[in-house]
Prior knowledge:
By secondary structure, this protein is an alpha+beta fold. It is built from seven helices and five strands, in the order βααβααβααββα.
Amino acid sequence: MLLPSANSTELSHSKASLEDTGAKTQSFSWDDLDAMLGSAIAYSPVLAAITGDVKAGIFLSMAYHWMSTDGDSQGWFSKTKEDWFNKTGLTRRQLDTVVGRLVDLELIFIKYDGLPRRLFYKLNEEAIADAISRYLEQNPEKS
């Protein structure tokens, strides 16, 4: 399953500014969908299953990508809440809830570092692999 990475804030601001000026909003055609999906992220329902939450599954999917592309030699990476929103659509509140849940499940590690202070994330690869293994053992039809 793919999720679009559209910046809904920009889309809603554009639409609002057009409406304020009395101009017609630009219509979206089927042919425009390909360009929008060009920056889609991969998502696997198994990640939602092991966390008990679709949003947490989306977070793990994006974190997996960023850890491999932007992570340091140990896998730590830092992204702003705006980065998360632009790629996943998760709001600040949703992101805080998801991160808290994943830390409690010990599926991710977080730390603050640097000046200015930034939040860094790292997937707990062993714990995620174990959780997926347990899930697949209990749900062999999902393998």
